[in-house]
Design goal:
Two copies of one chain form a homodimer. In chain A, α3 links the parallel β6 and β7. Helices cover about 30% and strands about 20% of the residues of chain A. In chain A, α1 crosses α2. Chain A is α/β, with parallel strands linked by helices. At the A-B interface, β1, α5, β9 and α6 of A face β1, α5, β9 and α6 of B. The structure holds iron/sulfur cluster (2 copies). One iron/sulfur cluster binds next to loops of chain B.
């Protein structure tokens, strides 16, 4: 059996963002990313700072840990990263979770297509806007969307763009316009990922959220968007593993 | 043409709660409710305090106002109350909005079935828990769910229960168990609807939200629930018309 690089397994908690916001879920965080976004809130998955915490686990071992933590108290698992789409054989884990009657969500930036994308119940594709310093490969993104459309899986997918500034918003509009049939989410960027004072963080993020709502509301190209904050950050601040 | 009792028309803004949380939308608030929940945050729709503000408007007149406010900047309208399901001919408005390529969401507590329920794009049915002082008529609720199932519209519907305390949570579990095929949402009750200090309100509501997450997470019967706050209250406090 294939082994996967795992950094964190935690839960049950709720999904704080995106297409299944609020959903009760467990989290499996894989290590490794092909990007290095300037504002990455999971930089420890790829910058080497947590490399001693990476464990190589089989799907069975991951399930054992999920079950030890969550018992019968979950029916949804979110695989996040890093970029879990770097893992070619992840279908071993996805299939095992489905056998256990557990639904599977994944978030990826859309730089890689994996055949198992058509098995994901809630697939969030999150192309990175200019403020990240990364450049989206739209040929690849087209390929992913085409693959999902061909498999009749667009209903299980969504696009999400994190927005920090006006340039990001322009990028978001362009992405939404390019793939109008896919549910589209705007998310407030957290530009205070190192702020330890929760009160300050919350008030700042709610102000930024209000700004993003105001901007989205004034844009005809975003009539069909959903504008969301990160709920886990509002509730738990910048803590990891909740 | 039929006239409808309208109390507020506002937007564009976002939907702050429930199945399409974050969705850019306009709001039409109708007057009148057959309930009188102890913690109703829209009591002015039925307690007489705003009766001089009620206007009798036709569907065309409502559309004219929506368009004057939102122009081309919306494609979604939420009809809330009060209880809009008291209005037998509301299909006149729903049909007109659909003609204009606008999607329609409605929230009702589930005390009345209207044939136009099968025309609603996002139908939230929100049975009231014990803390409201109201009693759910489950014969009626059964009838509504059966009607939607028969019309193959369950995909456009959701159940939402507002939770203030443990008894409410028990009620929520019972409702979810009774209708497991319908997407289920738990929402934090706002027990400070008259609090003018936004800072106090936000910190209190986030604490209550954390409590509700903790409770939902520990309940096997709520594995498939989605647990959400009211985003508009976090952003704008107890203000009306935003
Ligand atoms: S793609 Fe995601 S995990 Fe990778 S660097 Fe960017 S934000 Fe971080
Ligand atoms: S059903 Fe809704 S509008 Fe009517 S009293 Fe209860 S909370 Fe208020």
């Amino acid at each position: 059996m294939k082994k996967f690089p795992v950094l964190e397994i935690f839960g049950p908690t709720i999904q704080g963002e995106g297409m299944v916001i609020g959903q009760k879920t467990m989290f499996v965080r894989t290590a490794g990313c092909d990007y290095s976004c300037s504002w990455c809130d999971s930089a420890f998955t790829w910058d080497g700072s947590a490399k001693d915490d990476i464990r190589q686990l089989t799907a069975e071992e991951i399930w054992t840990e999920l079950f030890a933590l969550g018992g019968s108290h979950f029916s949804h698992v979110t695989i996040s990263g890093g970029n879990p789409a770097l893992l070619g054989n992840l279908n071993e884990l996805i299939d095992l979770l489905h056998e256990k009657n557990v639904k599977v969500a994944i978030e990826t930036q859309g730089s890689r297509l994996q055949p198992w994308f058509d098995q994901i119940d809630d697939l969030t594709i999150s192309p990175k806007p200019p403020s990240s310093g990364m450049k989206t490969d739209f040929t690849k993104l087209d390929e992913i969307i085409l693959y999902l459309r061909g498999k009749n899986r667009l209903y299980h997918a969504s696009l999400k763009v994190v927005v920090f500034d006006e340039q990001d918003l322009e990028f978001a509009k362009m992405v939404h316009l390019k793939y109008p049939e896919i549910p589209f989410y705007l998310q407030v960027g957290n530009d205070l990922v190192h702020e330890p004072d929760d009160g300050k963080l919350i008030s700042h993020l709610l102000t930024r959220y209000e700004w993003l709502i105001d901007r989205a509301v004034s844009e005809e190209g975003l009539n069909n968007a959903r504008v969301l904050p990160q709920l886990h950050t509002l509730v738990w601040g910048n803590k990891r593993g909740v």
